[in-house]
Amino acid sequence: MPDTRQTAAARQTHCPYCALQCGTRISGTRADAVTVEPADFAVNRGRLCQKGWTAPELLAAPDRLVTPLVRGRSGKLLTASWDSALQAAAEGLDRVRSAHGANALAVFGGGGLTNEKAYLLGKFARLALGTSNIDYNGRFCMSSAAAAGNEAFGLDRGLPFPVTDLSRARTVLLAGANVAETMPPLMQHLDNARLVVVDPRRSATARRAALHLQPAPGTDLALALGLLHVAITEGRLDTAYIGRRTTGFEILAGRAAGWWPERTEAVTGVPAAALRTAVDLLTDSSDCYVLTGRGVEQHRQGTATAAAFINLALALGLPGTPSGGYGCLTGQGNGQGGREHGQKSDQLPGYRSLSDPGDRAHVAGVWGVPPGRLPGPGPRAYELLDSLGRENGPRALLVMGSNPVVSAPHAARVTTRLAALDFLVVADFLPSDTARMADVVLPVTQWAEEEGTMTNLEGRVLRRRALLDPPPPVRSDLHVLHDIAVRLGEPAEHYPTEPRKVFEELAAASEGGRADYSGITYDRLDAGESLYWPCPATPEPHPGTPRLFLDRFAHPDGRARFADVEHDGPAEDTDAAYPVHATTGRVLAHYQSGTQSRRVPELAAVAPEAFVEVHPDTAARSGLADGDLARVTSARGGMTARVRLDPTLRPDTVFVPFHFSGDGRANLFTNPALDPRSGMPEFKVSAVRLDPLPE
């Protein structure tokens, strides 16, 4: 039966995928007839990637969730009314809480949720459930760079300058970021720059580089120290900037002294001459930027590695200047806003700290509760997932906007922990791998069916606008949280369902915080203002802050901090049983766990199944040829993938994308070794072996 939902002719909004948040104009009156065209928005300038062009196809996905599901006595998920499904969700959560206490409940959110959803989810967890157990999948995305940025600058915003500033760059160091595939429209801002790309693969971005540095997986920190050593010994530092705007350089210089180019080459595999060339490119002119991505962060030393590249940028005098800087390329659609407003285990809205009495008092005041009612910090994402169903761990879980069965490291173990729960509730718009395990599944709205705000990688707050009404049975995530909270005894007015009202409360809760949204309103955004946080409430409307740190950094003394870091290598090395390193990442056609992109025929045709890229010599030693099926196995488990030979790969490294489910999950072999400061797992390096697998 055709969908006859009616709506206005068109809406200006933003792509539902990555943190670039390309501007789009969508049109149509039916879910199966929505069209998209790129808007002339600053970050994409009239361009979209393949995912953006095909995004409307998700609105009419054949297996779209439209009716609540409740697991019956037979063990099968059965259709249910909203009232019975919500009652089942509330009773199940309350039953576990009554038997085992509030911390027997947990919440797992997502970096794709709007600011309003992320905010209300954090409030719901801490007040309606009373639990400290809340974290989100952004812990697997940008947590290391966030920790390093806070330590260095006193503030974490992915890009502390507008994307458009990159268009005047002379040189850009891209470390662990394959922008040509993960954010293709961003590449137009780099057309005039000489790219120095750090990646163990010769990625699409590396192929466009002036210089490609190809280190062994897990050695980026050593590489950054080696680059700093060259800059010091060849007199390429900005000593005036270091003296005027930083502190701690002397200790770091002592560390870097031990990383002469030949030693760096022995550890990383990057030739000493290439290190010197890289420093030449970074210092022979002004307008230089250092940008990092997941390849730098997703290690057990991810925070230290991100800090090492910040150290390099500081030593060259780049951050907080009009002609250069350091930034981290946020991944998920609301990866920036999603980590600012309370769904991280240690944070309250506005990037406030859950451990700070003043921060707790401010947010408690906005929420109308005593500060003592707010729980303390809880475990971080993987630690939370690994504790599910264990003694003294959570026994019930609400998942919103995430698919940890595919996206979490050591995925088989996480799946076992989810299965051990007494009760699992999932809110989603597609039947993800995690939703299929749930006791209650609640169908929620998609991007073109909802209002709200997103914060892109520049810290710019953007309006998401609805084109269509959702299918009649579907409700928004805000309604879901409201309805469960009320059934748990919370005052209805504490959980608004109107996005504008939620945003107004969010703005008040953020006032005076590091991520201050208090001067931002829907009216200002709808009038076309470009508002970057911090944007405090002031007598005259504050213009926002597109460029941070121009006068001072956010530490009390105004100075940036060099970090004392040292390379320690990956958590596991190769050996006779597992002789090569595997690294994971994204490909152009797919996004995150692939739940959305694999349902788009055009995208699925480009990459229909899991694959492993292997150097021909490595494949031959394993008895494999191009197109063969292989088993990629670590000490934790293995996955099945189609072999693709790539002579540009390092012979000691294989690459596997993480977008596939079932036996094609790359995270079946990844290592949950955690960064002690950020809680980031070591996705980017695992010791594995390759074995032929009969068709």
Explain how this protein is built.
By secondary structure, the protein is an alpha/beta fold. It is 27% helix and 18% strand. The protein has 21 helices and 30 strands. It has a seven-stranded mixed sheet with strand order 5-4-18-17-16-6-7, covered by helices on one side. It has a six-stranded mixed sheet with strand order 24-26-25-30-23-27. It has a five-stranded parallel sheet with strand order 10-9-8-12-13. Helix 3 links the parallel strand 6 and strand 7. The radius of gyration is 24 Å and the shape is globular. The N terminus is likely disordered.
In brief, what are we looking at here?
It contains 21 helices and 30 strands.
Arithmetic mean pLDDT: 96
Helix/strand/pairing category: alpha/beta
Largest sheet: 7 strands, mixed
Strand order of the largest sheet: 5-4-18-17-16-6-7
Q: Assign an overall shape.
A: globular
The radius of gyration is: 24 Å
Number of strands: 30
In DSSP terms, counting alpha (H) and pi (I) runs of 4 or more, how many helices? 21
Query: Which percent range fits the helix content?
Result: 25-40%
What is the beta-strand fraction?
A: 15-25%
Ends apart, CA distance between termini? 40 Å
Taking pLDDT < 50 over at least 5 consecutive residues as the criterion, the unreliable ranges are 1-7
